[in-house]
Amino acid sequence: MMRPSNALPAVYLCREVVDFRKGINGLAALVEDDLEQEVFSERLFVFCNRRRDRVRILYWERNGFCLWQKRLEKDRFHWPRRVSGAVVTFTGQQLNWLLDGLDVMRMMPHERLFYRRVN
Description:
This protein is an alpha+beta fold. Helices cover about 15% and strands about 25% of the residues. The chain has helices at about 25-35, 90-100, and strands at about 10-15, 45-50, 55-60, 65-70, 85-90. Strands 4-3-2-1-5 form a 5-stranded mixed β-sheet.
């Protein structure tokens, strides 16, 4: 079984739905133009179709692009829609939770706080 590593520090989800007739070149152009990210950075870029029953992951690996896809037979992915901006950043663990069917946006813990002094 091929799955993204849980140890990935950052995975970039395109918040808007994508026409899955786009192949590698179309998705790569979308990463650069709409998401304003570096497509050759060896990061994972995740896309969802309108019905939310398919996910594609595009990434650059040393000398070429890789495109991974998962198609659900019955359910839908819980895609983060009520978030501002074109890109949502997840960890590798959160991406795997999303691929397993969990609503990752509702599982987020409270924000970590950092203080220097008590008063």
